[in-house]
Amino acid sequence: MTFVRIAGTVHHVTVEGTGPVCVLAAGLGLSWFDWDPVVPLLAPHRTVVRFDRPGHGLSAPAASPPTAEGEADRIAALLDALGHPGPVTVVGHSIAGFHAEGFARLHPDRTAALVLVDSSVEERPRPARLPGAVPRALGAVLAAAGLPAALGPTLRRAAVRHDPAPAELVRRVYRTSRVFRGTLLENSRYGAVAAGLDALRAAHPLPPGLPVTVLAAPDGSARWEARQRALARRLGARYEAAVPSGHLVMRDRPDAVAAAVLRTGTPAGPDGPDGPGGPGGPGGSGAGEPRGSGQEAA
């Protein structure tokens, strides 16, 4: 384990493997160990960087509410701290898909490829109406009442069905008020981050020819599949369906995630055989955290 300080906040980071760098960013409330099933498939071919955002995993609490630009720059600062100038493949799951795409737009010279793993999608994002102080205060009250210590691991197990994560790590992370409050804060800013990414899309186009993959888990939902295909078309990306899989694709289909990362040099446009107009169908097993669906959740 490694800890690096970025903008005054201590971040937990792990680095494994060898070869070109790929960065794995997990979704709301998740931790570095949620990528464990994918790492053995990537490490022989890639230098795999995993990190916990502030208020997640083993990282320190957030000093300020998240923004699309701030999370993109966080990835860049993390790579600077590790001595990896790039270009890198950046992989974002769920809400971290916003962050990964933002990185590709703000740091195009440092981006080799972009992989969005069942990414959050908001066609008409609306910033949150609650000020950041409200979720902070709520988190403090619930933490003072002992809720994280009493129920944190249980809530994690309820959200992540058939959780393969080691029980010791789950207790270590999810019994803390830090992670409880960090998740509340990030969730409260979901709409604002989505709106921020929309602004970045208008001002910062993706680099021409950048390999982009949208790896979706339709999980039997035609509406979710349609939204993921629309995202792929919007980004000029290759569309792939992980079937069967729930939202936690890295757990259910680590092979599909690894293949998407390792195949990033393969050209395939949105209308190609693997694009939104090509084959792929619904299916799936369990589900993890909620996905972007017009609500303020990731």
Task: Spell out the key features of this protein.
globular; alpha/beta; 298 residues; eight-stranded mixed sheet; 11 helices; disordered C terminus; 39% helix
Strand order of the largest sheet: 1-2-4-3-5-6-7-8
What is the distance, rounded to the nearest whole angstrom, between the alpha carbons of the first and last residues?
Answer: 27 Å
Helicity range of the residues? Answer: 25-40%
- Rg is 18 Å
How much of the polypeptide forms β-strand, as a percent range?
A: 15-25%
Shape: globular
What is the string of SSEs from the N terminus onward? Answer: EEEHEHEHEHHHHHEHEHH
Major sheet details: 8 strands, mixed
What is the mean pLDDT? 83
List the uncertain runs: 265-290, 293-298
| Helix count from the secondary structure assignment | 11
Class by alpha and beta content: alpha/beta
Q: Quick one: how many beta strands?
A: 8
Structural features, described:
This protein is α/β, with parallel strands linked by helices and about 300 residues long. Helices cover about 40% and strands about 15% of the residues. Strands 1-2-4-3-5-6-7-8 form an eight-stranded mixed beta sheet, with helices on both faces. Helix 1 (about 40) links the parallel strand 3 and strand 4. Helix 2 packs across helix 3, helix 3 (about 95-105) runs parallel beside helix 8 and helix 4 (about 135-145) runs antiparallel to helix 7 (about 175-190). The chain is globular. About 50% of the residues are buried.
